[in-house]
What does this fold into?
Amino acid sequence: MKKTTKSTKKAVKEKPKEKKVIVKPKKEVVRKNISPLDTLKLFGRWDSNIEVRDLGLKKYLGLKARIIPRSGGRYQRKQFYKSKMHIVERLVLKMMVAGHSGKKHKISSGRNTESFLKNLSTVEKSFEIIEKKTKKNPIEVFVRALENAAIREETTSFQVGGIIARKAVITSPQRRIDKALRYIVQGTYQKCYGKKSNVADVLANEIIAAYNNSPDSLAIREKERIEREAASAR
It folds into this structure.
């Protein structure tokens, strides 16, 4: 039998202790349900996820994400369904028929009818100009311009005996957007109709002026005029 020495006894006693490995459970990664439609960008460039600050217009400003703002008449059969349409598409449709301005009919009505793609490319070019000048998302600039140009009250006339009286009334949200779009487009056509000015440049300047709440915009001037008349008819 071999005798155990002191060194071997120490080696037997001093065995390395096994470290307990604590395995921590992996944290579950919670993935948000992000719809693929939320990642779409208008014209493949600009995000439509814009916060509408005017709460009265929030339900009527269509900003659903899409690449090409064209619904193909999907919302035309039911009243007020146009609020589900993208706001840029409504601008394009307004440009197709700018409408008359006053009794003299200075602006042609129906000059650009049946040219949706032509007006769509014009709007896209104007958004490029807005992005270069403001260094911001042009859809956000356009939404802010509509909020500034949307009238809050106007006058209505009614007959009392043999007198036509006027009274101030609150404008509905849908009409506020319609009139703001109309005046932006009419202001664009007044500045470039029968002239050498480029439509995209004039439209961009009109939207930027409305964004800055400047009187250079026809929409801002008309809003101030109509609200001033309503204030005098209270």
Residues 34-232 form a domain with the Ribosomal Protein S7 fold (CATH 1.10.455.10). The first helix runs from residue 6 to 13. Residues 66 and 161 are 53 Å apart (CA to CA).
